[in-house]
# Entry
Amino acid sequence: QVQLVESGGGLVQPGGSLRLSCAAAGSGFSIAAMAWYRQAPGKQREMVAEITSSGTTNYADSVKGRFTISSDNAKNTVYLQMNNLAPEDTAVYYCNMLARTTVYLRVWGQGTLVTVSS
# Structure
């Protein structure tokens, strides 16, 4: 069984920074890709940033230049460094992993709340 454990959310003022972490736990899998999604109240869940096992990254236009996704393959952990945060970044952030076992599995974390407010 594969699980994702997220941490790092909280309250931050506009212009501030936060770093989210997501660690994958379990056995019998390898990671094909990991990503961060977010869902603001009343809105659909959207992809924020993704990174493949080879290190290729992709970002939503709204966060380019402000957010950076990175991974530590030895720790099966992905990070999201968020800088220059704005109120519109307020959302529940979800970690997502595409795991490779005998089949491909998409696994979601429990979500962590990021609130940007003065």
